[in-house]
Amino acid sequence: MIPTKGKKKWMQLPRDVVVGPDVIYDVKDVCDDLKLREGAFIVTGQNTKKIAGDVVFDHLDDCGYEPGIIVSKEASMDDVKKVVSEAEGSNSRYLMGVGSGKSIDVAKLAATQLDLPFISVPTAASHDGIVSSRASIHDKGKKTSIEVNAPMAVIADTNIISGAPYRLLAAGCGDIISNYTAVLDWELAHRLRNEPFSEYAAALSRMTAQILMDSPEAIKPELESSVRIVVKALVSSGVAMSIAGSSRPASGSEHMFSHALDMLAPGSALHGEQCGVGTIMMMYLHGGDWKKIKECLEIIGAPTTAEELGIEDKYILEALLVAHEIRPERYTVLGAGLTPEAAEKVARLTKVIS
Ligand SMILES: NC(=O)C1=CN([C@@H]2O[C@H](COP(=O)(O)OP(=O)(O)OC[C@H]3O[C@@H](n4cnc5c(N)ncnc54)[C@H](OP(=O)(O)O)[C@@H]3O)[C@@H](O)[C@H]2O)C=CC1
Ligand SMILES: O=C(CO)COP(=O)(O)O
Ligand SMILES: [Zn+2]
């Protein structure tokens, strides 16, 4: 991983970002460009194996690159260990995460532990983890966000991503829109706690959310152009995080709320969906235009209520109460925590709960 001590600034960015229809067949060219040939090890998911994992495997196999493949079921430390052991056993020289957020995170962390290059091949544009230098992994009953090496390349086939359930793309939009409150929280921490702040990272992150907010009607199901907009925005968010050297520009109080929900009501809603709903409420707390956020998510077709998330009201309220404890070192608008009355007020006023 990159050394970050002292005044040194070391930004880790992907070298190749390939976005477009059928770019999955460019995988060999990308590997060649990175001087990675034999010894690919593919980490894929149960559903995404057929959709993309096998395609990448066959393509590299036909080229004589002798790939290996493993199916990961969950983003857990156990799965990471399995991947590390199999990749070591087969003398793999680089890893590829081909699938959704789970497979990409497992491959990303395994590659970092093995000190091997990593290529991200997302089958859905559901959050900016497809390009970031973080991996969210379950360990000992808790989900932790771990710093890892950024992907050497991102190959986002817009045909494959258009074929994914629309819900995943709408979730990706929620993750992008959440940049607004993340940056507001960061500015607050800079003013109140003198936390280091990067104007460039903040501006890029805010602009990325703004582009989406300016034309939410451009995001529609099964439209290649919509996928292209969202993928580019997710890459841009990832770059903002790389410039900052942390997830600060894209993860604030709304992400803490989402992380709290992951613990209280696991498996109910997608990361980006929860972040979108969190953004509505955190924008209210910031005194900003939360109605515009809600309206934009509604146009896209992303959830804006507890019911649409499939989460009971009581978990929304509990998550609001514990969110500030998720990452105490990251100061946000939640400060030292909301009172139960304040939590209920924000959730009701924004119509997240009824
Ligand atoms: N590293 C980071 O910076 C970040 C990581 N995360 C983490 O990522 C994970 C969530 O990722 P997310 O992608 O939202 O959800 P999941 O990884 O849970 O994937 C959702 C489902 O969609 C399926 N799927 C994906 N692509 C397609 C497709 N093209 N067609 C049909 N089905 C498809 C997956 O299948 P399959 O079973 O094959 O995977 C899976 O069943 C969480 O663990 C979260 O903590 C979230 C944000 C940032
Ligand atoms: O999801 C992220 C940014 O969108 C990553 O943020 P975390 O550091 O909170 O995991
Ligand atoms: Zn996120």
TrEMBL record:
Pfam families: Fe-ADH_2
Cofactor, how bound (note): Binds 1 zinc ion per subunit.
Cofactor(s) annotated in UniProt: Zn(2+)
Involved pathway(s): Membrane lipid metabolism; glycerophospholipid metabolism
Binding site for NAD(+): 101-105, 123-126, 132
Catalytic activity: sn-glycerol 1-phosphate + NADP(+) = dihydroxyacetone phosphate + NADPH + H(+); sn-glycerol 1-phosphate + NAD(+) = dihydroxyacetone phosphate + NADH + H(+)
Sequence positions that bind glycerol: 128, 175, 255, 271
Keywords recorded for this protein, A-Z: Cytoplasm, Lipid biosynthesis, Lipid metabolism, Metal-binding, NAD, NADP, Oxidoreductase, Phospholipid biosynthesis, Phospholipid metabolism, Zinc
Any single GO CC term annotated in Swiss-Prot or TrEMBL for this entry: cytoplasm
The keyword Oxidoreductase appears for this protein: yes
Classification via Gene3D superfamilies: 3.40.50.1970, Dehydroquinate synthase-like - alpha domain
UniProt keyword annotation of Metal-binding present: yes
Primary location: cytoplasm
UniProt: Zn(2+) binding residues: 175, 255, 271
Domain of life assignment: Archaea
Compartments, as annotated in UniProt: Cytoplasm
GO biological process, one term: phospholipid biosynthetic process
InterPro entries named in the record: G1P_dehydrogenase_arc (IPR023002), G1PDH (IPR032837), Glycerol_DH (IPR016205)
Chain positions recorded as substrate binding sites: 128, 175, 259
Free-text function comment from the UniProt entry: Catalyzes the NAD(P)H-dependent reduction of dihydroxyacetonephosphate (DHAP or glycerone phosphate) to glycerol 1-phosphate (G1P). The G1P thus generated is used as the glycerophosphate backbone of phospholipids in the cellular membranes of Archaea.
Family affiliation: Belongs to the glycerol-1-phosphate dehydrogenase family.
PANTHER family tied to this protein: GLYCEROL DEHYDROGENASE (PTHR43616), GLYCEROL DEHYDROGENASE 1 (PTHR43616:SF5)
The name this protein goes by in its record: Glycerol-1-phosphate dehydrogenase [NAD(P)+]
Gene: egsA
